[in-house]
Write a structure and sequence with these properties.
Structural class: alpha+beta
Helix content: 40-55%
Strand content: 25-35%
Order of helices and strands: EHEEHEEHEEEHEHHHHHH
Largest sheet: 9 strands, antiparallel
Distance between the termini: 31 Å
Number of helices: 10
Shape: flat
């Protein structure tokens, strides 16, 4: 089975796209989380006061810096603009959206991956019906060329992981618990917290289980085109069936 990737850019009514059109040197990257959008805005040089005013109206500013490298701003806003969005159309056509959306020089840039080329063929004409669209690339991809780093949006990987479970996982990771050989133990980790060892271990195991479950769909996508069997699972199954 092959996978297919399509990259394209569109024009329609969108405040981020319109700002990028007015300020051609600006680059806006847009990520969608469970309950908000995170926007990263970068530009070379010193921004004008008008540009800073427009950025201030986009949402809550989480970070802002202006130095020799130029402007760097991170904002957070609600998801109200995603009602009847292009992202929902990707999902109805079984296409996996590859974040972030990039707004530059008046265009929105998107990339999607599909299991079937026909899904992309039906998606693109539907998008053309109510927005300007330019196809940048459309190609079959092999397992080795799948952009692994982009397959798993962070919000999906950490879906249903609680704040305490996340904290337990981070403490274990930063303390060397997952290194070989391990640099710490569950008892030592729990001693650094205000909870009992059994409670800490419960938080950690639940975090591990949820992460692996959430990552499963992306693992299947990454290995979808592979016929390799490095652990010889299939060979073992065949031997067991023959023995029966």
């Amino acid at each position: 089975m092959s996978l297919y990737e399509a990259s394209f850019r569109v024009k329609h009514e969108c405040p981020y796209r319109e700002i990028s059109e007015r300020y051609p040197d600006l680059t806006i990257r847009e990520w969608y989380l469970d309950d908000c959008q995170v926007i990263e805005i970068t530009a070379p040089g010193t921004p004008t006061d008008d540009l800073l005013d427009e950025i201030d109206r986009l949402g809550t500013i989480l970070h802002e810096s202006i130095d020799d490298t130029g402007l760097h701003v991170v904002t957070q806003s609600c998801l109200c603009s995603l009602e009847d969005s292009i992202i929902e159309r990707f999902e109805t056509h079984n296409c996996l959206y590859q974040p972030p959306t990039i707004h530059r020089q008046g265009w929105e840039h998107y990339s999607v991956i599909a299991f079937d080329e026909s899904d992309i063929r039906t998606l693109l004409p539907e998008l053309e019906a109510d927005r300007d669209i330019e196809i940048l690339s459309k190609t079959a991809i092999t397992e080795q060329r799948i952009p692994h780093s982009m397959l798993a949006p962070v919000d999906q990987l950490f879906e249903d992981v609680t704040e305490r479970q996340m904290a337990a996982l981070r403490l274990a990771l930063e303390s060397g618990y997952y290194e070989q050989p391990r640099k710490t133990s569950l008892r030592d980790l729990a001693d650094q917290t205000a909870v009992a060892r059994s409670t800490y271990e419960e938080h950690l195991r639940k975090a591990e289980n949820k992460l692996l479950t959430n990552a499963g769909q992306f693992l299947r996508l990454v290995t979808a085109t592979s016929t390799a069997d490095p652990l010889e699972v299939e060979k073992t199954r065949q031997a067991e069936q023959a023995a029966d």
